[in-house]
Each structure stands twice: as C-alpha cells, then as structure tokens.
Specification:
The protein has about 130 residues and is mainly alpha-helical. It has one domain. About 80% of the residues lie in helices and about 0% in strands. The protein contains three helices and no strands. It has helices spanning about 5-20, 30-100, 100-110. The N and C termini lie far apart (about 150 Å). The model has no long low-confidence stretch (mean pLDDT about 80).
Length: about 130
Amino acid sequence: MLPLSIDQRLMVRREKTEGRRRDPRWYPTNTSAAANAATRALASWIGLFGFAGVLVALGYVWVRLMVVDVGYRLSATRQLVERLEQEGRELAVEAAAADTPGRLEHEAQLRLGLQRPARGQDAVLP
C-alpha cells in the first residue's frame, strides 16, 4: 500500500477537482458536450444548406441546358417552316402556269399526240 501522506494528497486533490467540476459557476458539467452539440448542429446546418445549394445549382444548369436545347429546336423548326413556305410558293406558281390553255395544248400534243380537230371533225353531243 501507499504511505499515508501520498494517499492523503491524492484524496485532497480529488476532492478539489471534484468540487470544481460540480460547481456550475466555475465549470459547467456539460460544457464540452454542449459545445460539441452546437458544433455538430452547425455542421449539420452547413451541410444541409451546402447540399441544397448544390441541388439549386444543378437545377439551374439543367434548366439552362433545356433552354438551349429548345432554342436549337425552335431555330430548326423556323428554318423548316421557311423552306416549306418557299416550296409552297414555288408549287403555287408552277400550278398556275400548268393551268394555262396554251400549256395544256402543248402538253397534249407532246405527250398524247393529240391535235386540234379539223373542220368537220367537230361533233355536237346531245
């Protein structure tokens, strides 16, 4: 065993430190636990807001990509509409030219070998 003088010093030292630990004026009993809890809560909030910020940033990038994609589609559609309108105008001019009597007579002579009827070949149908 230890000599009495050493054992008494340890007891006195323990009593002094135990007294300080229990006295809330000097050292609150859960100071480190409260500080750790506050630090963990702060870190949790920072992590949560950081994650939310990353989600917002990704959402913004996704929306911008969709806007660019829709812009390209709109441009391609406008070009297609312009091309089809031009083709429609050309076909309307061609159709108007195809309906003229002179063109019809010319095509009938070339393709079908038809000729204008001579005098006396006209027949009146009842």
